[in-house]
Amino acid sequence: MDSEGKPGRIWYLVAAIVAVSGIILFVVLLFSGLKNMNKGMTQMVMPGNHDITLEKDGKYTVFYEHRSVIDNQVFVTSENLSGFQVFVVDKQNQKPVAVIPTTVSSNYTMGGRAGFAIFEFEIAHPGRYEISGWYAAQEPGPRIVLAVGQGFVGRLVGTILFSIAILMLSIVIAIAVTVFTLIKRYQAGKSTLQSQSRSA
To answer: Mind telling me which residue stretches traverse the membrane in this protein (predicted)?
Structure first.
């Protein structure tokens, strides 16, 4: 501020920098978050059997990836997957785990991978599980990629909401700085005119 308490125009630049920084941070957080979403998902080529370790209890979602990459091998299959069954067995006690159609519709496209939820299951304890998938009546069909993950939808929503919150906060701060500067400059200018009028 100058000697008259009038904020300089530099504060308009500060507001612009805050707004631009918020936009850049929003883009970086969103894209980096989405890029890392698939790291907690285990991919499997089906039909076949796979033993995997599930580290937490709770609900898991099975995704069908109609566009995927495993070990530098590209898989591109039809988005229409019919007659395919998935089975889960607890390796500790050889008991089957109930697998049901997903109750939440979710899909994703990221890092050369695209898929959507088809099944879900819930386990009571972490451990080794056998996941197998076959076409109905053991009929032949194309090789496909399934991915199993936990909390995917929650992480996706959290990433998006956090990124939006950062963007909105930066915009609010930029607007507040701009409005504050405008008001203070207006008041300082008005006070100067009144002082000059009284002096005259």
So the answer is: 12-34, 160-183
Angle at alpha carbon of residue 59, lines to 131 and 146, rounded to 5°: 40
Specify whether the CB–CB gap between 48 and 132 falls below 8 A.
Answer: yes
Cβ atoms of 88 and 97 within 8 Å: the answer is yes
Tokens coding 176: 């507040």
Retrieve residue 200's tokens: 């005259």
List Cα–Cα distances, 8 to 1, 4, 5, 12, in angstroms: 6, 11, 9, 8
Helix, coil or strand: residue 104: coil
The pair of structure tokens assigned to 187 is: 């008041």
* Domain 40-150 top-level CATH class: mainly beta
pLDDT at res. 191: 67
The whole-number average pLDDT for the span 39-50 is 88
Whether 113 and 162 have beta carbons less than 8 Å apart is answered as no
CA distance 125 to 131: 16
